[in-house]
Every structure is written in structure tokens, then in C-alpha cells.
Amino acid sequence: MLSRRSALALPALLLPAAASAQDWAPSRSIRIIVPFTAGGATDVTARIVSERMGALLGQSVVVDNRPGAGGNLGTDMVAKADPDGHTLLLATIGTASINQFLYPRLPWNPQTDLASIGLINNVTNAVVVHPSVRANTLQELLELAKREPGKLNYGTPGNGTSGHMCGEFLKFRTGVDIGHVPYRGTGALIPDLLAGRIEVAVDNLPSYIPHIREGRVRILAVTSRERWFAVPETPTVGQSGVPDFEAVAWFGMQAPARTPRPALDRLTAVLRETCADPAVVARFREIGAEPSFLDGPGFDRYIAAENQKWQEVVRRANVRLE
């Protein structure tokens, strides 16, 4: 147990760390690199947090979309950027966890080249189809795929995204033959789905909610363990005949690994305040995302747990990308 003198001394001992975090302030605009195209859940998450973070930091925070290679191009940009707190990454389950097991050679090291600022939110994936597809449930879609192997294709925002791995895991678990078509982000995938040029999409739910409500696409299942609050009438994959299936996407913020600790601490504090803001929480839930802030160390532990899960999924699905 602490002595009374030690306990009284604790606040003074903590003052230098707190002061150093408050002393750091950005000297110019901050860029949040989004490694996917505009319009997807990654992009929307970045735009929701950027305005409030800018107000708290006293500098503009701009979103810079740098898509390509399943998020690898934008992530590599941040890993190699000046570590001064002015270039940040909107990290995803793909860039922070899955891609390292899919790609034999990454231009950066996910374990050492990026520093965690915090986890922001999570979303379920959804299995969505064009109205022309002769399936009203996930089970009917799987039966259709078994009757006509190789005929159906499913689109995702790109190789290594949670949508891609959900689709491959579903194929592995059910034995169906459905081709994978990677797009350069959700913004490129949705127009093809709406036009019927791709029959099925497996992707983060938020960007599809307006089209689901308008009847332009049909949602068959969500990939979370429980039904998702934004579409409570939609069954889970587990409830649709594939037990113990769960794959929730998540989004967080990272910086170059050598970013000074005072900058990381200040950015974490600002992100924490942003994610607790009632207006930001309401906006997240409006698009179908669940706020789930964790600080830097908490985010590191979360990523470590996800790494164990997705390394096994990639191994069992036998997927490798160049």
C-alpha cells in the first residue's frame, strides 16, 4: 500500500507528463491519411472526427484519401512520413492487422513503424445483394452458389479488407464457390452493385444503409455475433446457418513510430475527447457505427488480440496476395 506521503506526492509526479502533453501543439494543418477512396466507412469515420479534433487542436485537420493495394499505399506513406504529429493514419482492421498475414512483403513493419493513438469505433460487415439476385436470405444465397458454382461474384473495397476476409472465411466455412472482385474502395464498389454489374457485396455496413432503406439493395445478414443496432431486423451469419461466425471491422488512429511522446499524448487526449462528444457519438450511430474508444496502449492490446484471430483465418482460408 502507498504511504500517505507517497499518495500526496503522486499528483506532483504526474504533472510533468501531463504538462508535456499540453505543451505540444500542431504548428500547421494536420493530415489524416485515409488509405481508401472517399465514401466508405474509413473515409466517413475520418471526416466525423476531423472537424472536432481540429477545433480542439486549434488547427485544421484535413482528410487526404490515398487508396491502393488494400490500404497498403496510404499506410506506407504515414509510416515513412516526418514523425512530427502532423501526418496521421486512419487505420483499419486490414492495415493494422490482416494485411501482414496476406502479403508476404510489406514496405513497412506493422509492429514497429506505427504508433497507436487510439481505437475510434467499430462496425459490422454486411452481406448485401442486388435486387436481381434470386435470394432473400443468406441461406438461399449459399444454396444458389452451390447450384451454380463459379457464377456469382462478390465485391469488396479491396484485397485484405475485412469484407474480403469475411467473404473468404464464409466461403471456407460453407464450401461455396463465389469469385472475389476487389475494388479501390467502397466508393467504387457501390455504383457497380447498384447497377447490377456485381451481384453481391461483403463490406462495412454504414455506407449501404441509405441504399438498403431505399430498397436499391437487399441486406441478407450481418457478420457481428449479435444483431446490429442499425438494422435490428437483419439476422447474423450465425443465425443464418453458419455458427460461431463473427467479424467486426474497426477503425483507429496511428502516427509514425518516432512521433514524440508529448505529441502522441496530446493527440490521444484530443481523440478521447472527440469520441466522447455527444454530437460525434450521435453521428457515428447515425451511420451505423458503434463508438469504442481505447487509448494507445489499449489499442495496441486490441490489435494483438485481433492478430491472433486473423492470422488463423488467413491460414485456414489459404489466401495469399502479392
From TrEMBL:
Organism of derivation: Sabulicella glaciei
Keyword Signal carried by entry: yes
Keyword Signal: yes
Pfam families assigned: TctC
Stored InterPro entries: BUG (IPR005064), Bug_dom1 (IPR042100)
SUPFAM superfamilies from the UniProt entry: Periplasmic binding protein-like II
PANTHER family reported for this sequence: BLR1237 PROTEIN (PTHR42928:SF5), TRICARBOXYLATE-BINDING PROTEIN (PTHR42928)
Identification of the protein by name: Tripartite tricarboxylate transporter substrate binding protein
Family: Belongs to the UPF0065 (bug) family.
CDD domains associated with the record: PBP2_Bug27
Record keywords, A-Z: Signal
Signal peptide: 1-21
